[in-house]
C-alpha cells in the first residue's frame, strides 16, 4: 500500500510507520526477536531507564538508490558504537549480528516508508536500548529491551543544504570532561536542551559547545560533530567529550582521497578566524554548512562564508557521500549493506 507522504516536504521528525522490532535481555540472555505494531512500551514505574537514564541510542539511515536497491550506511559501525555506549553506562551490549538483523528487519517491514530516489529524504533508523529492572537504589538493571524504530525523514535543518549560523555559549556544558559525551546516551541530549533552546530563540541553528574543562577548544556542534577547512586541510576536534561521529569518520576518509591532509586535534576558538569553511556533520545533519559563528559571550563574530554560499569542499563531500549512499559511486570502503 502506498503512503500519501509528500516526500520532498518531509521534516526531520517522527512519522508513524507500520512496525518496530524488539528484543529483551532477561535471565542473562537475549530472547526472540519480536515484531510489534504498537508505538508504546509497557514499563515498570521504577525501571532504571526512567530514573537513572539507562538509555542509549543510535541513528543511521537507509537510502533508495536509482537502481531501486535499498542501502544502509555503516550499519556495523553503529552496532559497535551502541556497544561502546552500553559498556559506558553498564548496560548489556547488543550483539552485532542481532543489531544488524533487527535493523534490516525493521527496514524491510516498513519498505513502503523508504523515500523514493531523488526526493532528498531517507529512512532514519533509530535503534535504542533501555534498562527495565525496577530499582530505587542507584544500580544498573539486569533486564534490558532493545528496540528498532524507523521513520522517514527530510533534512535536519529546515533550510536544507544552505548555510546556517551557530553560536558559542559558555553558560552550559553538554557533558563533563571525563563524562558521557563519547557515548550516545539520552542524558547528554537532555543536558543540551536548555542551551539549544536559547540558541534557537536567538536565531541560531545550533550551539558550538566548547571543551567543558578549559572552555578553550571547540568540541561539537549540537547533535553533530564539527569540522573546518584551514589552509586546505580538514581539521576536526579531538576530545574525550565528543561523540565519535561515523559521518565525520567517513569525511576524513573522503578528504584524504581528495588529497587533503586531515588533522584531528585541539582547535582553539581563535582559529575560527583562519578557516575557509566549517560545517556540522552527522547522520541527521549530513554536512550542514556554517555561515557565521557568533561568540555570544565576547560579541566576536566569525564570518566563515564570505559569499553566503556553502563552500566547495563541503559541497563535494555531500555529493560524494550521497553518491555512495545511493549506489552511484562504488562502495570501496565496505560502508554499505544492501537490503536484499
Ligand atoms: N555528535 C552528537 C552529539 C550526535 O548526536 C551525533 C549524531 O549521531 C553526531 C555527533 C554525529 O554522529 P554520526 O555521524 O555517527 O551520526
Ligand atoms: C543523528 O544524527 O543520528 C542523531 O542522533 C542526531 C539526533 C539526536 C537528531
Please give a quick description of this structure.
By secondary structure, this protein is α+β, with helices and mostly antiparallel strands. Helices cover 22% and strands 28% of the residues.
Structure description:
With 340 residues, this protein is of the alpha+beta class. Helices cover 22% and strands 28% of the residues. The protein has helices at 48-51, 75-88, 96-109, 186-201, 246-257, 312-325; strands at residues 20-26, 29-30, 34-36, 55-57, 60-64, 70-73, 122-131, 144-153, 164-168, 206-210, 218-221, 225-230, 233-237, 262-265, 277-282, 286-295, 301-303, 336-339. Strands 1, 2, 3, 4, 5, 6, 7, 8 and 18 form a 9-stranded antiparallel beta sheet that branches. Strands 9, 10, 11, 12, 13, 14, 15, 16 and 17 form a 9-stranded mixed beta sheet that branches. The longest helix is centred in the middle third of the chain and has 16 residues, at 186-201. Pyridoxal-5'-phosphate binds next to helix 5. Residues 59, 223, 282-284 line the site of 2-OXO-4-methylpentanoic acid.
